[in-house]
Amino acid sequence: MRLTKLWQNGSPGERHLSTYFCFAAVRLLLVFVPQLGYVHPDEFFQSVEGLEHTRTWEFNNSLPVRSIVLPFALLRIPWSFYEFVAECLKAWWQLELLGTYAYVVFPRLIYTLISFSNDYCLFRICRLYGLRFEIRLLAMGSSWILLVFGTRTFSNSLEMAMCSWLLCLVSECMLRTNTVVYKKEFLEEKYDKAESISERVRIWKLKNSLPAHNLQHLMAMSTICVAGVFNRPTFLLFGAPMVFFWLLRGMGTRSITFRDFNLRIALFCLCALPALVFIIFCDSLYYQHLTLGELHMMHLSIDNFVFTPWNFIKANLDSAQTASHGVHPCYVHLMVNMPMLFNVLALASLGAFAQLLLRFFRAEYQVLPRFQSIVSLMSGAIFVPLFFLSLINHQEPRFLLPVTFPLILLHAPKLITGFSAKYPFQKDHPLLRLFYDKLLSSKASGPYLLKIWYVSNVALTLFFGFIHQAGVYPLAADISHVIATKPVATHVHLITSHIYSLPLHLINIPSSRVLHFNRQTHQRYRRPRDFYMYEYGGLPLDSLLQKVKLISGSCEVKQSGPSRRRYKLYLAIPASLSADLHEALVHSNASSYLNFELLKVFYPHLSTEAFPRLQGRHPCDVDAPHWAHDDLRGTCAAEQLPAFSFAYLNKQFSSFVHQLGLALYEIDVTRNKPRSVVLKKASMKETAA
Q1: Within this chain, do residues 294 and 348 fall inside the same structural domain, yes or no?
Q2: What is the pLDDT of residues 183-210, one digit of tens each?
Q3: 3 state SS for 94-156
């Protein structure tokens, strides 16, 4: 009761700040829960997975398009320290700290701590410019972008943090330059008007005591820009308008000339060289374009050095290459991704920018924000990269994450004031007045925007954080247990279909590519491979069964051969495909010698590649007892009743819910009769029929 009274008696700013701290705690809590949702394979395969197990095409030695420096510095080095501590605790107190949970939580914790730099930069700019920080921090903390993407190991999350830091530094530099230049010109006017020498000396001393501003934060900004471009070359699009505003600050006054502008450009490029050389050198060593022997002998050429951003640009200029990841119309970022990421704030930002453009083309320059202002800086940081990214034919929502910071800084107060606190149009037309009164005004939209913001962000957090492809993580934990408890000299084969790629590091198996050192024999060795995974994406089930036959046949040959290599074969598919799998088995006659035993169904799991059907079927093993009598063995059908009734709706709903899972089957080969005999009898039956 006391907490409720304190909450009600507090000012709106205090309530917003308290709510922000609650969401900040939730962000940390979601790391340790952890979130089971699998947003995109790049979460793992562009960071953690590529450091040891699986190198994607982006990290190949011939033409690498991703730098290894930031993932190695942020993940590999801290993880090596964690491994050392875990091994010590295991030796001393038998505590096992290395497992699937640790492999998920530890990298996410690092990136979550980095995500709080967005909050700090937002708070700092608000304090510098005298803006209300409570509602802006609340919008930032409650956004599903920070709750989901901010806690994942995406390169886009790092890009967002670096853009936030760069915006913070540029904003601080702009404010200091404007303040110092104004004071300097004011003192110069006073100096010219001064009559006595003593007064001129005093003004001259005041003028010389003004702080330096021309090259403020130069080294930090140039280093952030280099690191950002090597992290994701699209940082060029986000950072270019910010750096341009930094170069342009103070221009148009008597104190700042084109000489200062050119000097800033030259020194900015010069300060970027140390970070540039360091990253190129590390990448060249990692991708084996440069060896220590060549470095010692000084046998160097331009081919010994790797410049990954240029390779990235060349790869993305190839329309066929980008089309392999998906082709989207140019309006997807604007019409789909922006509303999906920012919902009502996206509408507010697009409306505000349209109003600025309208006033510009009408030559109403007096009502436009000053070019060297915080509003112009943030607007450029939103719409310049949005325009250029829309020209690329592959568009994903996460590509727009760096837009979050400037958009929230400009438009978050509208969550409580409504779309427009005052009439925004120049002409007082009846239709425009009605549009404003019914939709844009504070009275019409103010009470609802914050509620819509909360509902939409919580819903998207639940979907992408806990439902979307959420069966992959428990599947990895289960397969990890299978490998840990399997008999010696037994190989494990896992076939997956219609789900995202399974990161091998989550299964907690040592990489067979890494060289290990035996301290007793002083020899290097590689661990033998005993786990094989076959990923078939959205392959039709008939074709998938053909793959299963080939893999099981190969395993049987090896088991019956001289090596007597035993095996376990598993299949993981969305539960919504269980009925289709059974039908495909019946049609292919594979059920005569292949036995599919349903081991587990991991809930929840939603694959958009195999969306549950309203009139779907689900495995009988997890079905209600009164549905056990079904025509299809091993599955249960929700048959459509002749009349619309509550029982029919209940069946359909139950069937839909049961399809929201990831089914794991163990595949056994029937060995009581030779396979050739079984196939022969099957063919004879078909002939007789």
Answers
A1: yes
A2: 888 888 888 888 888 888 888 888 888 8
A3: CCCCCCHHHHHHHHHHHHHHHHHHHHHHHHHHHHHHCCCHHHHHHHHHHCHHHHCHHHCCCHH
